[in-house]
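# nightly structure sweep
# worker-07 picked up a monomer target from the shared queue
# config: single-sequence mode, recycle default, output format = structure tokens
# input follows
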Amino acid sequence: MSRFPLRAKLALVALALLALPWAGWRYVREMERFLLAAQVEALTATARAVATALHERPQLLAYRAGSESDLRREAERELRRLTGGVIESEEPARERAADAEITAILKGLERSNSRIWVVSRDYRVLALAGSLKRADPAPAGAAERALGWLLASPTEEFDEAIAQDALAAGREIASALQGAAATRARRTRDERAVVMSAAHPIWVGDEVHGAVVVEETTNRIASLRSQALERLLVVTLTLFALVGAVLFWFATRISNRIRRLSDEAEAAIDARGRVTRLTTASDAGDEIGDLSRSFTTVLGRLARYNAYLEALAGRLSHELRTPVAVVRSSLENLHAARSTEEVRTYVARAEDGLARLATILARMTEASRLEQSLSAATRERFDAAALVRGCVEGYRMAYGPRRFELALPAEPVPLHGAPDLLAQMLDKLVENAVDFAATGTAVRISLSTEERTMNLRVENEGPPLPDAIRDSLFDSMVSLRAERSGTVPHLGLGLYIARLIAEFHGGALHAANLAAGRGVAFEAQLARAV
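# output follows
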């Protein structure tokens, strides 16, 4: 399944649309069932109407109708054959008058595709009118011809002669002659049509003197079912064609976008692992657009990290070159020293170089030690305002003539975290501000609160941040300090450590230039204690 292309998978998913024709077929069958029930009700109502017209008229039920059709003669002969009786060849004139009245009643109620009988209680057919065959049958539709192997198509070419069990063994007739209306469904003798019949008793006083039987085929309902299935077939095929075309277009479009994104991702990194180009970030609002933008972001980060790794060796070489040169030259001069004073001088220089090397190594491992200590740090609830006030008092003594301005809220600011780590973060921010602050200007430290956060801000007046380094300012080994003659190395780890501490306290660290480019502000947004 994993080797299937996306178009094949969507084609398999499209098979779920087969539930639509199945649901439509079930709906048509339910409608057919309701229509058959309505047909039975209509036949029962017709039989009741004819029986009502014949109630309390025993003189009509005592005679046979004279003008009988070929179908009635066949029914009568079949009845006599089953009962062993003899067919009379002639009828008195008085019987023809009664027959005419019954025939008039039946003619007034018969329909073009129904047949009505009047049966006496001794199973004699007194009258018969109508035919089961429709005069104008609907032509078979395309669906009827196409689905002929699945559903029996209705036809008017059936044998409508009365079967042997229609009179003698008909359950509906027997039930009606017992005084209860009944219905029955049966097939014609050639099994090509289904006949629905309803029988209703004819009462004379408290006795049943006969029954009215109304018959009708289900061909009309079967035709409606075939028409519905024909429309369902056309709609289903059209829907399948449209949905298939849309799914194919959609799958092709998605496949092309994914393939293009895959090609760009493969071409973005060369064989040596260097990011040579970035993918084209799509502006689409769907998941593939999000994936494209994520690829672009990830490749951008990898490019910056590769640049950082490439610059790391040069930066370390630059930082280590001076103390190593100091140690080497001191050792060389020490061999040539002639007096004790010269030996002491060269030894002191070598010790300074070694101390600077030790400081560089300590700075390099400071970040990794901090990451390990953050996972085991103990959190506690403390007042951040009091901690910042105490730190600033120490800065005023440590940084000599540099002025510090402090702005704190009047009420305590509760914070849940590690006080020593927060103080270390503030140390890094203040150290950076002091190094870049212009001579004679003050470093401003402020603490403000919002509904759920506290903002610790450190500002200094001096050179602004370049736009090229703003995104990577808080990364490791990134520094803007100019070369100085001092002995303290700067590896660009201070702001990186400050960012780790801010994230440990559920916040973030941001940097921005002051208005008119007169300085820089660092702000840490930390989550307040609940």
